[in-house]
Specification:
heterodimer; A: 299 residues; mainly alpha; ABC transporter involved in vitamin B12 uptake, BtuC; two-stranded antiparallel sheet; B: 406 residues; alpha/beta; Rossmann fold; 2 domains; 4-stranded parallel β-sheet; 14 helices; globular
Chain lengths: 299, 406
């Protein structure tokens, strides 16, 4: 059979199940990114670096210190969230007024985290045991329980984030600040504190993703780069500021990648490039994304 | 006063020169934050300590100590970092010999710099055939290059085919299947291309059906889509050509899915002791071409592997053959009575060296001459947390190859 020829497959059910499961993984990562980037308009490039820190923290506590899943998970999420607040006060807040400066500062922050992990753990690839072992067959496709757990956690986080944004005073403040920071300030809101809370919530979501998703991937100092690119594509595709858009975007990217691998096996390495091409295409054709607000109407 | 000062300076300079002449400097080039570089350095340290403890290298009737220069090439992340490190050890550290390298793209560039300075460079990590082809095409320029480990990629292919034939025979017997199905999973990098093309042409001749070729990125951490497709295609063997973290993902995710296919090929991560932990204990049955194990490939293999484990608390990977590289150079220097590169090249060309990783001799491209039991490497398989050697079967200490229960 010629190179890359798919033969009697791709099978529809393979694509449907694989795309859904991988879309769930991306959705969990994208929710926090959507909140910080899409809603609060803070271009925090270090978002997935916090995800990496959480994965390393979880690995250290679970594998090295021998603490249980629950304790390791809770401590990791709490520690990384608190650390993010510190980083916000020291690095992001002083340059918050200048978007490009925030962009550069958070890139630097991410690279510092990467080098720190490289220095502390070396370039070794580390594995974290699955929280749930075992596999289930969905439409003839093997799906590990850990991936189903990710789907469930992603759904719960999506609902929780939506409730926070649309059913609480803090959520109202976050949306108001994102809409017009000056008016929000004039209305008596402490915009700096709101921004800090947004960073903390967003990083907490990244840390939860780190704890739940890391067991299906490999933990290494560069693990933050690939998801960052995918997250950017998802948030742009779904529309800045739209949680629903992020979910749809995550599923679309999950399915596009699955279709790429199934239809073009020898081009499996292109799946990231395909996701980025979609992002560029969306920016050209529909800059506001699927569910976002047009840039002209942002403020 | 001035005369005394000048005399002191002159004496100091003479002392420094004399001290410099008392050592032979070996630059060990590798990605030191990564396991490949760690093993480059560890193998070199073992050679240095052994030689220095025995009095050093005899150079024209004079004993000289081995001095190592540790050069972090960072080549996994950056080829320019690797070339800068190579420039530095030649121009600033005044290295006499260069040893190491891992990533073919980087080593090709490092080779140019070494050849510019007419420095002997013993490769201990990269498989790209062009490194040796350069010697054949332009001998005068590239004659200072020799490959110590691994064999060039076409020879890796010969080893892989030999082992695959053995696995295929076992599979035909146990599965009662005349034509086992093979899925090729090769990361998208320069070293996999020639092996992959040759495989696609060769496997049908070996009565094996190629059900497809998947090429994930070398840094991919998720191959679930690929594995779904491979499972659906009914593959019996997943033939791997993987040097990056994707090797861990593949092993783990195959285990999580309870796949009945067995993975064999090159899986650099699978060669490491840390593989089992990195796959969270899911990498059972993953097998790979490898270099070191406690088997009698040469009389020196078992003592070296045991001493390495004793000192570093883990088994060596193939880049630890920097040990052999230093020993090869020691033998050549002692034979030639000099460290002069031009005089050492013809000595190296005629040498047969019984090392720890292989019994090495070189062809006109300064590539290792491939031979089963000498330079072809070994097959190892992960079985319940242990890396078990299984090929070539005639070597003492080999154990049976196992397949997942069906």
């Amino acid at each position: 059979m010629p190179r890359g020829a798919p033969g009697s497959y791709p099978m529809l059910q393979d694509i449907l199940v694989t795309g859904l499961v991988n879309g769930g993984v991306y959705a969990l990562l994208a929710i926090g990114f959507s909140l910080i980037f899409g809603v609060a308009r803070i271009v925090n490039i270090a978002h997935t670096a916090f995800y990496m820190l959480a994965a390393y923290c979880f690995y250290s506590l679970l594998v090295k210190a021998g603490l249980g899943f629950a304790v390791s998970g809770i401590v990791s999420v709490a520690a990384v969230t608190l650390f993010s607040v510190l980083c916000y006060r020291l690095v992001i807040e002083p340059v918050r007024e200048h978007e490009s400066a925030v962009l550069i500062a958070t890139i630097a922050l991410a690279l510092v985290f990467q080098e720190l992990m490289l220095f502390s753990f070396g370039g070794h690839y580390l594995g974290i045991p699955s929280t749930l072992d075992g596999v289930v067959s969905l439409a003839g496709v093997s799906v590990p329980y850990q991936r189903l757990l990710i789907l469930v956690v992603a759904a719960l986080m999506l609902v929780a984030t939506w409730a926070l944004l649309y059913r609480t005073r803090l959520g109202l403040a976050i949306r108001a600040t994102a809409n017009d920071i000056e008016v929000a300030s004039l209305m008596g809101m402490n915009v700096e504190r709101v921004a800090m809370a947004t960073v903390a919530i967003s990083v907490a979501l990244a840390a939860i993703a780190g704890v739940v998703v890391a067991p299906v991937y490999v933990v290494d100092p560069f693990m933050w780069l690939a998801p960052l690119v995918t997250m950017l594509a998802i948030v742009v595709l779904g529309g800045l500021g739209s949680l629903k858009g992020s979910l749809i975007g995550a599923l679309v990217i999950g399915y596009v990648e699955a279709i790429t691998v199934f239809a073009l096996p020898a081009g499996a390495f292109l799946k990231g490039a395909v996701a980025l091409s979609i992002m560029v295409l969306v920016l050209l054709v529909r800059p506001e994304g699927l569910y976002g607000v047009a840039f002209e109407e942002e403020r | 006063m001035m005369r005394s000062f000048l005399m002191a300076v002159a004496l100091l300079a003479a002392a420094t020169t004399a001290q410099g002449q008392g050592t032979v400097k070996f630059a060990i080039l590798g990605p030191m934050a990564f396991v490949q570089g760690e093993n480059h350095w560890a193998g070199a340290e073992m050679a240095r300590d052994e030689i220095n403890k025995a009095g050093g290298i005899a150079v024209g009737g004079r004993k000289m100590q081995v001095e190592l220069i540790r050069a972090d090439t960072n080549e996994v992340q950056s080829v320019p970092d690797a070339t800068n490190a190579t420039e530095r050890v030649i121009s600033r550290d005044k290295a006499d010999f260069l040893i190491g390298g891992f990533r073919s793209e980087a080593v090709l560039a490092m080779q140019e710099i070494a050849m510019d300075s007419k420095k002997i460079f013993l490769g201990a990590g990269a498989a790209d055939a062009r490194l040796g082809e350069n010697v054949e095409k332009n001998y005068d320029r590239y004659k200072y290059w020799f490959r110590v480990t691994p064999t060039k990629s076409p020879d890796l292919f010969r080893s892989l085919v030999a082992i695959l034939g053995s696995i295929g025979d076992q599979m035909r017997q146990s599965l009662k299947k005349d034509q086992p199905k093979v899925a090729i999973v090769a990361e998208k990098t320069v070293w996999t291309e020639p092996i992959m093309k040759a495989l696609q042409a060769t496997l049908p001749k070996m009565k094996m059906e190629v059900v497809g070729t998947w090429q994930p990125s070398a840094v991919a951490t998720d191959v679930t889509a690929e594995l779904s497709a491979i499972e659906r295609a009914g593959a019996d063997i997943v033939f791997t050509l993987l040097s990056g973290p994707v090797g861990i993902s593949l092993g783990r995710q195959m285990g999580e899915r309870n796949m009945k296919a067995v993975a064999f090929g090159i899986n650099v991560e699978g060669q490491k002791d840390e593989f089992w932990a990195a796959t969270a204990g899911k990498g059972n049955f993953v097998s790979t071409l490898d270099t070191y194990s406690e088997v009698e490939m040469t009389p020196k293999t078992i003592p070296f592997v045991r001493a390495f484990k004793e000192r570093y608390k883990k088994a060596p990977t193939y880049t630890a053959a920097t040990y052999d590289a230093i020993m090869v150079l020691k033998a050549a220097i002692e034979q030639a009575g000099t460290t002069d590169a031009d005089k050492l090249v013809p000595v190296l060309e005629k040498m047969e060296h019984v090392g720890t990783a292989a019994t090495a001799s070189w062809d006109k491209r300064h590539d290792l001459i491939w031979e089963v039991g000498k330079t072809a490497g070994i097959g190892v398989q992960w079985q319940d947390g242990k890396k078990v050697p299984f090929w070539p079967p005639q070597v003492k200490g080999m154990q049976p190859f196992k397949m997942p229960a069906r």
